[in-house]
Structure formats: C-alpha cells, structure tokens
Amino acid sequence: MGVRRTAVVKLAVSDEQRDALHRTAEQYLYCANRTADYCWSGTSFTQCRTNKREVRDALYSELREETELQAQLVQAAIRRAVEAVKGVVERWKKGQRVSRPTFTAKTMDYDTRSATFYRNEVSLATVEGRVEPSFVLPADSPTPYEQYVLSEDYEFRESTLRYDAATDEFYLNISTQRIDGDGPEVPADTGHPDQTVLGIDLGVTNLAVSSTGRFWQGDNYDHWCREFEKRRGEMHQRGTQAAHNALLRLGKREEAWRKQYIHTVANELVAEAVGHDCDVIVFEDLTDIRERLPQAKWHHVWAFRRLFEYVSYKAPDRGVSVEQVEPNHTSQRCSRTDCGFTHDDNRHGERFCCQKCGYEVNADYNAAKNIGLRYARKRIHRLRSSPTSGSGDAEVNLRINGGTVNGKGHQPIAGD
Q: Mean pLDDT, consecutive 10-residue segments, the chain of 416 residues?
C-alpha cells in the first residue's frame, strides 16, 4: 500500500457561501443524528442496527424528503452514524457502557461526486447548489496541497469539511494515497523483530511524552491559550465595532500560533523517532479522549488531534509509520515487562508507583511505554525506551543504563 497523506486547506468563503455551508452542515447533522437514533438500542448492543445497507434502505428516502441535501451527502451522513454506532457496540462488547453517539460538530464527508477539486478552488455540493470557495494557501511552495492533491503520484480518497467555531473558518482535510511505487513507503507490517517502536502519551500537564523519556511540556501552550482567552473576553466586553474587528484579527493570530506550535512539536517528535532509529510511532486511540481526560479543555483536545494529524503526514517522509492502539489501562499498568501489574492505585497524579514490584517513575512516561509496548507485543517489534532504574524492560530490548525519568526528562542515578 502506498503512503497516505492528508492536506489541510483553509477556504476563503463569501457570506453567501458561508450561509450555504452552515445550512448544509445543520441538515447533515440532522441526518446523522436521525440515523444514530434509528440504529440505537439502549438496552442491548445485540439490538442495535449496524448493517449499512439495511439502514440506508430504511432511511435514505425519508431523509431525502426531509432535507435538501444531495444524495451523496445523505448517504455519507448515514455511513458516519452507522460507523459510530458500530464503534459503540464494540466497546459494549468489551464491557464499556457508553451512550448513543450524538453529532454536534459541523463536519461533513465529501467524495468525488460531491466535491470537485481545481487548482485554486473546490466545488462543494450544498443545499443551495454548488459553491466554489477558493483556497487560502501559504506563500511557501510547494504546499501539502500541491504536493499531494495536485500530484499525479497521489489519488484522491476522501475529504472532510470542518468548521472551526473558534476562528469562524472552514477547512478541508483532503486525504490522498500514493498510487505509484516511487518515494518513501510506510514500512510494511511484516512482524520482523528488527523494527523499533516509539510510544507517545498525550496529556494536559505534559502535552506529549515519548517512551524515550522526552517531555513536551504543556505549560507554555496553556499559558498562551489562557492569554488569548483573556484578551477575547476583554474585547467582548467592549462591544464596539472596533473591538469586534480586533477580535477577528486576534482569532487569526491565535489560530496561526496554535498551528505553528503543534507543527514544531510534531517535527521534534518525528525527529525523536528518527534519531532513535524507530520505524513506528504509536499513539493512543483518540476516540474518547474527552472522557479519559475530563480536565482537558477544548484547546487540549484540538492539540491532540492536530498533533496526530501532523505526525501522520510528516513521519512517512522519514520512513516512519504511525499507528494507534487501545488506550485502556495504560496509565494504571506497570510498564516493566517482568511485572505488568495493573491497578488504579498505581497512579498518583504525576507519579506512578507499582503496588506489586515497587517500580517508581513519572506517570506519563510509564503510559508512553505501555502504549508502545501494546503495539510492540502485538507486532513482535521492539520498544525504544529511555534508560530506566530497573532492568525489567530487557525482554523487549530497551536500552537500560540506569537512571530514572521524571517530568523533566532522564535524571542519572548518583554514581552512574
């Protein structure tokens, strides 16, 4: 399989186009929620409807009559809802009790029939006919859009239109896949033991922590997000037209700052993997990140998803693939391979202390190792880890030179 790439493109929309896209998104969400309601059974997962063909046959005609959506968008909304219900059913089977999926974010899935791409603009189906917003592309060339969407070496797979309420802007996430045999390929999953894994844990105090013991602190990110929020509040209170215009400018500066910040972290994370000869970067599945991190604010969740997105298209260029694993118990499980004891009492805030073997380490670092180990054990790969104070990691070929890992990185033991 060829390398997959996602180009994120900002759209320049007129007031009329903006209204059309908002109306389309509202009707798209209506279809998705109606479908989820039809599929759902709150008493037993065996009663949930998850057959796409059957659900489509039952609802398609009704939703076409109840909305002004093009046929492809109605079908896309149905598919999205059915997939979401299927995901919930799978979690029910694992004993995780969850509620019916509800769709509120204004995102829509477009295929080749509902979206047509030109060099500098896109034609999108809406409830008011086709709209053709132009792209807002960086001055630096080549852009990811030029490299992948316009390239003859890549084919269009799908796109998602996303509305960012914080900046009042629309974006297209355009997914492509390499169709020729040239260029860097994602390492094949051969199960060869020579491949090495880098685990990544995402959090609030530490934005990201790698299994090599590198920490990307969240303090600076949080500080500037709070500063932007404070300034927005001050401008809202003024209530003048000048304040409104300044608020729009501030939103654009904040968006640019946040993106640049996450781009920098993504570049450093990929460099960390390359510098340690890693073939695979492994993240936790972000599907239920809000539930697992209730203290996380919207800008944290945005950062997690954008970081994964950026790493996913940057890493393959360096010969590194990107994967995800189930996140359950990665914070409570002891990462020493000769232990593996899992208990809620193992974690105390930012510290991890195994109640069975006594292994003490930074909790986020422990989770990063567990994320990598989960994939490494499954694929018989090696986890690249920082030196630690114990030798229980030898089974998966970690480097063990002595020392401990805290929130500031590796600290040598006296006398080492």
A: 67 94 96 92 76 91 94 93 84 72 87 85 92 83 70 78 84 76 40 66 83 77 66 69 68 74 87 84 80 64 84 81 84 84 85 85 86 75 49 32 35 30
Domain encompassing residue 12: 4-178
User: Rounded to whole angstroms, how far apart are CA atoms 37 and 26?
Assistant: 16
254 and 362 fall within a common domain: yes
**Do residues 211 and 320 share a domain?**
yes
**Rounded Cα distance, 327 and 110, in Å:** 30
Does residue 231 lie within any of the structural domains? no
**Edge-to-edge strand ranges of the sheet holding 4-12:** 107-110, 154-164, 169-178, 4-12, 134-136
CB-based contact 373:396 (threshold 8 Å):
yes
Measured between alpha carbons, how far is 108 from 316 in angstroms, rounded to an integer? Answer: 27
**Distance between CA 78 and CA 249 in Å, rounded?**
37
| Number of compact structural domains in the chain | 2
132 within a domain of the structure (yes/no): yes
CA angle, corner 46, sides to 41 and 47, nearest 5?
Answer: 35
Single residue among 114, 147, 178 that ends a domain in this structure: 178
Kindly state whether residues 166 and 289 are assigned to the same domain.
Answer: no
Q: Tokens 């959506």 correspond to what residue?
A: 69
Calpha distance 283→208 (Å, rounded):
10
* 223 falls within a domain: no
